[in-house]
Design a protein that fits this description.
The protein has 326 residues and is an alpha/beta fold. It has two domains: 8-198, Rossmann fold (3-Layer(aba) Sandwich), CATH 3.40.50.300; 217-325, Hypothetical Protein Yjia, Chain: A,domain 2 (2-Layer Sandwich). It has eleven helices and 14 strands. It has helices spanning 20-28, 48-54, 74-90, 109-114, 137-143, 145-153, 168-177, 189-198, 230-244, 299-305, 316-325, and strands spanning 8-14, 36-41, 61-64, 98-102, 125-133, 156-160, 182-184, 217-224, 248-255, 263-270, 273-274, 278-281, 289-295, 311-315. The strands form two sheets. Strands 3-2-4-1-5-6-7 form a seven-stranded parallel β-sheet, sandwiched between helices. Strands 8, 9, 10, 11, 12, 13 and 14 form a seven-stranded antiparallel β-sheet that branches. Helix 5 (137-143) packs across helix 6 (145-153). The longest helix is centred in the first third of the chain and has 17 residues, at 74-90. Belongs to the SIMIBI class G3E GTPase family. ZNG1 subfamily.
């Protein structure tokens, strides 16, 4: 295989019946969706979603049936991605711009993305989109940890079913679980799909979050102290991934390089999968800080992980208010 690779691997998550397949079909109908491949994971033996997507028209489509990809099909997922790339190359076609994995409604994004380790040499840029049903979000959050894990892992949260309920409550709930995600509340299907699949990572990084409505999800602000060196920063993040494991749902923020060259490095972590650091211009919107979303871990737990580390850890909402008041 050549060194050419898809620009993106997009994980499309969302609880059962929240509109993932509809969102994907609306996207595939747009001209911007050219050079897209789709992998559909269905938890049951009948691949209904795959059949619906296939009905959208000719496109590279692969199915992962009879199992939740985050539990039992991770090797199949890697094999399927490799097969799609090889088939594309053998056909003499240009590389895919993106591969979209539509997960089953019960999947957790963290284990899926961690399973992609064997594909690291391809240099895929990974991001996650989650659908949030305006009519059912509060009930799902109250009873299913999978819902919170999906929202917490997302770069973009798309509020759906706006014909059935107002979007304010679902939007506030999503902001409380994941204040880092861009939130799309758009009733027009085409505009909603276009925004969902083209909103860049980092679009909502500085948006303060409301108090998290999910009792097991903690959102924490991590600030490095003045005597923290570059190795201290990297060591702390690596230690967090090892310490938290599957309890780490999301980490995002900025680091400032040791050399003061006016740049900031965007940190993107889903589960324990670290995306490559990307450079951005340093502005007031890129302060050196990390936001950590974790399940069943308090700020005190995070402090105890490395008690001598030169960091300050607080609740994210408090830190956002402090930054706003400065």
């Amino acid at each position: 295989m050549t060194n050419e690779s898809p620009a993106e691997f997009i994980l499309l998550a969302g609880f059962l019946g929240s509109g993932k397949t509809t969102l994907l079909r609306d996207w595939l109908a747009l001209p911007e969706a050219a050079d897209t491949a789709v992998i559909v994971n269905e938890a049951g033996q009948i691949d209904i979603d795959g059949a619906v997507i296939a009905d959208s028209g000719p496109l590279p489509l692969a199915m992962l049936s009879n199992g939740c990809v985050c539990c039992s099909l991770t090797n199949d997922l890697v094999f399927t991605v490799q097969s799609l790339l090889e088939s594309r190359e053998k056909a003499g076609l240009p590389p895919f711009r993106r591969i979209i994995l539509e997960c089953s409604g019960l999947s957790r994004p963290g284990p899926i993305l961690r399973s992609l380790g064997p594909l690291a040499p391809l240099g895929l840029r990974v991001r996650a989109i989650a659908t949030c049903d305006a009519a059912q979000a509060e009930a799902r959050a109250a009873h299913f940890d999978e819902f919170a894990a999906q929202i917490a892992a997302a770069d973009v949260v798309v509020v759906t079913k706006l014909d059935q309920a107002e979007g304010e409550a679902a939007t506030a709930l999503a902001a409380g679980i994941n204040p880092l995600a861009a939130r799309i509340v758009e009733p027009d299907p085409a505009r909603r799909a276009l925004a969902a699949f083209t909103t860049p990572p980092g679009a909502a990084l500085s948006t303060p979050g409301a108090a998290a409505p999910h009792p097991r999800i903690g959102v924490h602000l991590v600030e490095f102290l003045g005597d923290a060196g570059w190795d201290d920063r990297l060591d702390w993040m690596e230690n967090l991934a090892a310490f938290a494991g599957e309890r780490l749902l999301r980490m995002k923020g900025f680091l400032h390089p040791a050399e003061d060259d006016g740049a900031a490095l965007l940190v993107q972590v889903v589960g324990t999968l670290f995306s490559p650091l990307s450079r951005m211009a340093r502005t007031a919107r890129t302060p050196e800080a990390l936001v950590v979303i974790a399940r069943d871990l308090t700020a005190q737990d995070l402090r105890s992980m490395a008690p001598d580390a030169p960091v300050r850890i607080s609740r994210y909402a408090d830190g956002a208010r402090r930054a706003s008041a400065a």
